[in-house]
Amino acid sequence: MIRFVEPGDLAEACALLAGDEWGNKVLSGGTALVLMMKHGLIAPSTLVSIGRLDGLDGIRHDDSRITIGSRTTHRTVANSPEIRRWLPGLADACGRVGNTRIRNVGTIGGNLAEADYAADPPTVLVGLDAVCHVTGPEGSRDLPVADLATGFYTTSLGPGEIITGLSIDIDDQRSDAYEKFVSRSSEDRPCVGVFASARYDGSVLETLNVVVGAAVPVPRRFDEITVSAVGGTLDDAVRHDVATAISEAIDPIEDLRGSAWYRRQVTAVLVRRALERVSR
């Protein structure tokens, strides 16, 4: 029988999780965890619910940064005026997670902690240089989202550590966009997801980054390719060259959503589309 526990505070939750690294699991929205339990992929002895802990949800905005609580739902992120204004790629990605039922319950912190390669928000958050706020038995620390997922459903979180929120710097000179392709149904997880962001001085590129997710085990940036475009304009030829180089550089996985060859072709198309959306 599975035990259900609602700790009174974050310290108690961390202690419960640390006491049994494999047998205890944290429960937030539960959209992924419960499904994995139903399919027999995991069999936790205890579910540690953080649903009633204070300070883990909501969106806060100051002059230079947006902070999102880990228990904030995808729907809340997608509909937030602050997110839609300053981080439109993230709003788009969260608004396309699963279906309405999933978005109403699933949380952004749970999505990150699951480390599912076929997820939408992590691709965007890596591209935005987002930072996770993590609390565990030994205290709190900040962890770049780019360093969180280490492989298929594995993370760099230590025993008893919980993602409590994430922070993203905002920039009114930055344009960003998220492109997603699904190969099976409109509610499916992505076959390929691509995030692009660009910062300009007039029409001249100051920075450009592209991240590809779902086609690879963890979201991957391509700074070694996009740096070649900095200092120029993001015209048709540059967009084509960058998209081609990235599609050739990735090592795509294969699953029911597509072969490696197929994902490579889709990546080239999505990168071009994302770059078109951030072009001036």
Element order: H for helix, E for strand: EHEHEEEHHHHHHEEEEEEEEEHHH
**How big a fraction of the residues is strand?**
25-35%
Please compute the radius of gyration using only Cα atoms.
Answer: 19 Å
- How much helix, percentage-wise, in residues? 25-40%
The number of distinct structural domains comes to 3
Q: The CATH topology of the largest domain is what?
A: Uridine Diphospho-n-acetylenolpyruvylglucosamine Reductase, domain 3
Computed structural class = alpha+beta
Basic shape: globular
- Give the strand order of the largest sheet, numbering strands 1, 2, ... along the chain: 4-5-10-6-7
Instruction: Show unreliable segments.
Output: none
For the record, the CATH architecture of the largest domain stands as 2-Layer Sandwich
